[in-house]
Amino acid sequence: MPNPDGLAARAQVMSTIAKNIAKVGARIREAAQASQRDFSTIGLLAVSKTKPAAAIREAYAAGLRDFGENYLQEALGKQQELTDLDLCWHFIGPIQSNKTRAIAEHFSWVHSVDRLKIAQRLSEQRPAQLPPLNVCLQVNVSGEASKSGCAPEELPNLATAVAHLPRLRLRGLMAIPEPTDDTAAQHAAFARLRELQQALNMPLDTLSMGMSHDLEAAIAEGATWVRIGTALFGERDYGRVPPQNP
Ligand SMILES: *Cc1c(COP(=O)(O)O)cnc(C)c1O
């Protein structure tokens, strides 16, 4: 019989973020089991946009290493504060041309490449002493509801061109489907991304899909990165984000 006082005391020393990581880990594990997938093939990318460096430190202490950021200036500031930690940084937000150099220099992965011009700049600007930049192509699987991502019809040409860029390593596809509580619609959007990837017939190993509200559907359809913010760090307050220099 566990001692209830002891359990309560232990729960108290565990931070909210550590508890959330345990809960999300359990969701990922259950979803993997339900679709007979190996849990270890699904990466948890902690989306820390709008959250302070201290939150990343806590998540690191609880075992997370991969962090996703959407806003360049904000990300660079946190990177400066966290140079003592061994972190892997992922850029997951929209990319303007004038931001590619800093992204190429300060991130290991970019999930949100959706046009060739951006890919070419990232490849040209990736520093020679760093390994090739891992990239995913963002695809718009929700039609007019979304402005980000390349159209599915453009994907084969874009993928072929990006695969030839010397300083990039094309890993797979990413999508942010229109949010919905309809699980059948969630599955359909993620299945679409998986099918688009299979149709490319290229040696790709990554499907970046699934967020706090739909990670189960994404894992059932083959996600290898789930990008989780709210379920780990709580609701976001966009007032915290510093203004972005265009
Ligand atoms: C903010 C964001 C997430 C995390 O979303 P949550 O619903 O908070 O889990 C994932 N991916 C991208 C591209 C995001 O911008």
Automatic annotation (TrEMBL):
Q: Which GO terms describe its molecular function?
A: pyridoxal phosphate binding
Designated name of the protein: Pyridoxal phosphate homeostasis protein
Which residue range or ranges hold the Alanine racemase N-terminal domain? 42-236
Task: Name the family.
Answer: Belongs to the pyridoxal phosphate-binding protein YggS/PROSC family.
Q: Does the keyword Ribosomal protein belong to this entry? A: no
Give the domain of life: Bacteria
Q: Does the keyword Phosphoprotein apply?
A: no
Q: Which organism is it from?
A: Pseudomonas indica
Q: Which InterPro entries match?
A: Ala_racemase_N (IPR001608), PLP-binding_barrel (IPR029066), PyrdxlP_homeostasis (IPR011078)
List the Gene3D superfamilies: Alanine racemase
Identify residues that carry N6-(pyridoxal phosphate)lysine: K49
Keywords on this record? Answer: Pyridoxal phosphate
Instruction: Identify which cofactors the protein needs according to its UniProt entry.
Output: pyridoxal 5'-phosphate
Q: What does this protein do?
A: Pyridoxal 5'-phosphate (PLP)-binding protein, which is involved in PLP homeostasis.
Q: Which NCBIfam families match?
A: YggS family pyridoxal phosphate-dependent enzyme
